[in-house]
Amino acid sequence: MNALLETRGLSRDFGGLRAVDRVDFSLMPGEIRAIIGPNGAGKTTFVSLVCGRIEPSAGTIVFDGADITALPAHRRVRLGIAYTFQITSVYAQLSVFDNVALAVQRTLADGRSQGRLRAGVMEALERVGLADRAWLPAGQLAYGHQRLLEVAMGLALKPRLMVLDEPTQGLGDSEIENFIALAREIAASATVLLIEHNMDVVMQLAHRITVLEAGRVLAEGSPDVIRTDEAVQRAYLGGGA
Ligand SMILES: Nc1ncnc2c1ncn2[C@@H]1O[C@H](COP(=O)(O)OP(=O)(O)OP(=O)(O)O)[C@@H](O)[C@H]1O
Predict the structure, then answer these.
(1) 195 CA: nearest ligand 1 atom
(2) pLDDT per residue over 60-115, tens digit each?
(3) Ligand 1 pocket check for 211: Cβ under 6 Å
(4) Would the pTM count as exceeding 0.95?
(5) Shortest-distance Cα residue to atom 30 of ligand 1
């Protein structure tokens, strides 16, 4: 089987700081991969490079066999790479429904009918458990629900690769349980790349884990391997997690 996503020597500098440092990374179709690492390790920068939100300083990104390194983000969305939009892209005054509809309309100019658009939006909202809040202004949602709204915005694009940046931040325990079920369901039709600080979520969900430290891949492997990796314990898990 060929990798869905591959990076080679992927790097990004911010001034004198190398936030992502020659990362070779490979993701198989259908996988749930977690990226973990201490604050500032380069996790968000790495997935931002994958999604095209920022440009690399060096290296290549291949998606489904095609070099996408120079493609702008919206073209990557059309290829099937969805990124949980930052909450800053949620319009507080617009309804939950309209936020998802806008995300679809902005990125997929494929002339789909209003009826199909509506059905697609509602399906995405049902999957994240926000259908009963569809007509609320998005700004009235709790923070964690705004994060789920972002997930719905991504899901409505029917992605092949779903990139989730700290999706459980701000969710309560029962909502986190629901999210775990949702992520598994997403993985039935898409590959999932997840940045997550909640180690319970990571250990339950991820098939494989990539550990970043100071922009580099420190370790990679199954949850069991990562849990017992000494370098990881030292750098990140603090021996106790
Ligand atoms: N736009 C930017 N301009 C300058 N420096 C940046 C920028 N974005 C990130 N950095 C720096 O790059 C490094 C990696 O940041 P990044 O946000 O990717 O880490 P992270 O692993 O996602 O951290 P966290 O877990 O805190 O979200 C940090 O030192 C950060 O300060």
Answers:
(1) 22
(2) 999 999 999 999 998 998 899 998 855 567 899 999 999 999 887 766 655 567 77
(3) no
(4) no
(5) 40
Q: Is 19 in the pocket of ligand 1 (CB under 6 A)?
A: yes
Residues 143-196 pLDDT 10s: 889 888 998 988 888 899 999 998 888 888 988 998 898 999 899 889 999 999
Ordered domains of the chain (ranges, CATH): 1-80+159-241 (3.40.50.300), 90-158 (no CATH)
Q: Is residue 38 in contact with ligand 1, taking CB distance under 6 Å?
A: no
DSSP letters, the chain, are ---SEEEEEEEEEETTEEEEEEEEEEE-TT-EEEEE-STTSSHHHHHHHHHTSS--SEEEEEETTEE-TT--HHHHHHHTEEE---GGGS-TTSBHHHHHHHHHHHH--S---HHHHHHHHHHHHHHHT-GGGTTSBGGGS-HHHHHHHHHHHHHTT--SEEEEESTTTT--HHHHHHHHHHHHHHHTTSEEEEE---HHHHHHH-SEEEEEETTEEEEEE-HHHHHH-HHHIIIIITTT-
For ligand 1, atom 16, which residue shows the shortest CA distance? 42
Query: For residue 214, how far is its CA from the centre of ligand 1 (angstroms)?
Result: 10
Q: How far is the CA of 117 from the centre of ligand 1 (A)?
A: 36
